[in-house]
Write a structure and sequence with these properties.
By secondary structure, this protein is of the alpha/beta class. It has twelve helices and six strands.
Length: 312
């Protein structure tokens, strides 16, 4: 294998990306690079479906548990960190395997992010005041009118990212996504083979429901109680993410556990649709129809990678 190659395993939630990435890493002596925006936070394990150390088969996993829950970690930081990990793997003649479902992270790494205007405290204050008066979802609907693509990738209650996207629009007159064409990847010399996994909606629904039940049975609520007892505030970014946000509402008494499980599964299905829409717009993605842990999918992918790694 020549240097400067990267395999990316992408796709919607619950498609078996981690299982496939492990199979690839075992076959080629590779190392896995996390591409999930929630797995970077320490202590948030069950709701993010991090692979336990015992299940990693001795394969190095990078960019997992690297950020304190109260810190802010951006896509730009991820691109820099991932580029450094990839170059280090290449220096050791290892094949890096990027795995995850955060499309914005993948785009930041492979196409770059524009630096953007600086923060405007007055504008941010006005937008946050609107959110307090009319709700975060009002700002999300406003974002959908001026930057539909950003609205699709940003959760409707992710106030920080919504405010930043609106800030960029109002300061530059252009939507955040329109600036991407002016950017450069931090790994322009790396040959990327991007693999996408997709499943029918019914299969996603079944797998998501099963996974949510497993998360609760593994102790999701106890994990959250322990984090809160350690002093992690409810406003910490990971608590605002999928699974944790709905479970936190349950702990506050907003709804019972059965309704919370059903809501998380529903939100996961919606998230999976948004992820698929995002990845469909990525150029040169090679799609495979089947879960990553299935033998037919794994064998088809490995055949493709065999040819890829043997290329000069």
């Amino acid at each position: 294998m020549t240097a400067r190659k990267l395999v990316a395993v992408l796709g919607s939630t619950a498609t078996g990306k981690s299982a496939l990435a492990l199979a690839i890493a075992e076959r080629y002596g590779g190392e896995i690079v996390n591409c999930d925006s929630t797995a970077v936070y320490r202590g948030f394990d069950i709701g993010t479906d991090k692979i336990a150390l015992a299940d990693r088969r001795g394969i190095p996993h990078h960019l997992i548990d690297i950020v304190d829950p109260t810190a802010e970690y951006t896509a730009a930081q991820f691109a820099r960190d991932a580029a450094a990990v990839i170059r280090d793997a290449h220096a050791r003649m290892k094949l890096p395997i990027l795995a995850g479902g955060t499309g914005f992270y993948f785009r930041a790494l492979t196409r770059g992010l524009f630096p953007g205007p600086g923060r405007d405290a007055a504008l941010r204050g006005r937008l946050e005041s609107i959110a307090e008066r009319r709700g975060v979802t009002f700002l999300h609907r406003l974002l959908a009118r001026v930057d539909a693509e950003s609205a699709r990738r940003i959760q409707p209650r992710d106030l920080k990212r919504i405010v930043r996207a609106l800030e960029v629009f109002f300061l530059t007159g252009r939507p955040l996504t329109a600036h991407f064409a002016d950017t450069a990847s931090p790994i322009p010399d790396v040959d990327v083979l991007a693999i996408g996994l997709r499943l029918p909606a019914a299969a996603i629904s079944e797998r998501v429901t099963r996974r949510v039940d497993e998360q609760f049975e593994r102790g999701l609520l106890d994990e959250m109680r322990a984090l809160l007892a350690r002093g992690i505030p409810e406003t910490a970014r990971p608590f605002g993410g999928l699974v944790y946000r709905q479970a936190l509402e349950h702990l506050r008494g907003v709804r019972d556990e059965a309704a919370t499980r059903a809501l998380i599964a529903q939100e996961n299905r919606r998230y999976a649709r948004r992820q698929l829409i995002w990845f469909r717009k990525e150029p040169n993605l090679v799609w495979f129809d089947g879960p990553g842990e299935s033998a037919p999918t794994r064998e088809a992918v490995l055949r493709m990678i065999d040819a890829y790694v043997s290329r000069p």
